[in-house]
Design brief:
This protein is an alpha+beta fold. It has 21 helices and 10 strands. Helix content is about 40%, strand content about 10%. The strands form 3 sheets. Strands 6-7-8-10-9 form a 5-stranded mixed β-sheet, with no helix packed on it. A 3-stranded mixed β-sheet has the order 1-3-2. A two-stranded antiparallel ribbon has the order 4-5. The radius of gyration is 26 Å and the shape is globular.
Amino acid sequence: MSTTLQVHNLRLRAQRHEQLWPLRCLLENALAGMSLPALPPTAVILVRHFHCGRLDPARDHPLVLAARFEQALRASLGAGACCVDQQEAEQATLVWFSDPLQPYRRLLSLWLQGRVPRAWYWRSLLGVSPPRFDAAGVAWLFEHACTPPLGPRAGGLLVESVLSQDAGARLWPMISPTLARRLLPEPPRPVAPAPAVPVPGLPRRWRQALDEASAVWGETDGRLHWLAWQALCCTYPALGQQTDVVARIPRWLSHWRRQKRQQDMQTPGPGTKDPSMVRAAATKRPASVVIAERQRLAGDPAHIASSSVPQSSPGRGDSLVVMERGHGVAACFSPCSGLALVVPLLQRLGMADLLAAHEAPVMTQFPLYLLLAMGRRFGIAAEDPVTPLFRPLQALPAVEFVPESPALHWRQQSRQMSLMALRHASPPVLIVRAQLAMARYLRRYCHMSLRQLVCRPGRVLITHTHWDVLFELEQSDIRLRRLALDCDPGWVPWLGRVVRFHYGMEEGEYA
C-alpha cells in the first residue's frame, strides 16, 4: 500500500540533548514501516494525538515499534474512529476521509451550507486554518485540489459536487477571471485546423450550470471557457491530456447555445398543445415514439441511455460513485474483480495512443463502453460494485455494440494485437476486435483466456478518484507477474482514476 505519512508536531524528551537525534531516527523508521489495513487503502487518516510511549534506541527495533504503533492505532479505530465525508466530528480523536479529494469536496459543501469548519482536523489536514468562503478562499481550494495526478478532473469533480446540491448560484460569483485563466491550460499556438469531430454532448446538469454561469458572468466572459473545460474533463476524462481541445471550446459553446435556443423554441408554453402530440395524432404513431424521436434529433444526450447501463436511484443521480455504508465506504465482494486487470493490458496494447490520435473514441467513451461490453459478456450483475464506473454512460448517446461475424477475416484480425492497427474501425467493430486483440495477447504470452483474467473473485472499492481491488494472496498469478500485468497502473487518464491492486488483505477488514 503506497501511503504518505506526515507528522505536524513531534515532542521528544530525553535526559541528554545528544539522545534526541537517535530517537528521532528510530521513530521515523518505525512510522515508515507502519500500515493501517483496517481502513480503505484510499483513506486519508488524521490522528489528533498519539503517545509513542518510552523509546530506547539501543533495544527497540523499528519493525517492532511499527507493530506496536499499529496495534495502538487499531485500538483507537475500534474505540472511536469516524468517517467525516458527510458529517463533522469535533470530538473524535481519529477521523478519515474516503479519498484524497473528499476533504476539498467536504470543505466546499460546508461553505455552500453557510457553515464554518471548526473541527481540529481541518488545520492538521490543510496545514493552515481553513480559509473563508470568498474569492481568495475558493481560489486557494481549487489550486490545491487541482494537483497531479487528477489535475483538471479534480476541478470538474468539485464543481460537480456543487451541481448535485443546486448551489451553483453561490459559487459562480466567487470564481474570479484570474483564477479561471490560471486553471485553464494554454492552447497550442498556432492552433491546427480541427478535424471533423462531432460536438461533444454534455449531461443536463452541466448544460444548466453553463446557462446559470452565463447569466452571472455574461455570454462573452472567459470564465465560461474554464467551466466548459471542467465539464469536458469530468465527462470525458481523456480530454484532460489534450490541451488543443481548449481552442475548440468557443465553437462548442456557440453550438450549445444555439442548440438550447432551438430546444426552447420547440418547448410548448403553458396552455398550448404539444406539437408532438398533434404530430402523433396526425400520423397515428404513439406519442412516446414521436417524443423520443424529437429528443434524438435535438441531440439531448440526457434522454439517450443504453438499457444495459445500471440506472441510479431517483433523486441521487450519480452523486456517489462509492459504495456507501453508514460509516463511510467499504470494499464489496465481486466475482469479476479481475476487470481491473484489463486496464494494464489495454495500456500495453496502446489505448492511450489510440485516444491521443483519434478523438472519436474519446467522445464516445470507448474505454468505458469496452469495459461495459466485457462486463456484459462475462455476466457482471447489475448490483456488482464495478457498475458505478458505467454511470457516466447514462449521459452519452447509446451505441449498439453488436458482435461481428467471426468468419470475417478471422485470421487477419486475430494477428492484430495493437489497438492503433484498428483505429479506422467503427465503434461496434472496434469493441469486438479489441477483445480479440486482448484474448490473443493473453493466449500467446500468458497462456490464459480473457475469461480467466476477468472472472477473479476479490473485493472492489470505487471512489471519485480511485479504483482499488483487493485480492487474496492465493489470487496472485505468476503468469501475470512475469509480464508485470498485475502491477499498479496508477493514474489512468482515459479512466480518470487511480487504479491499484492489493494482495493479501484480510477479507473482514473492509466489511
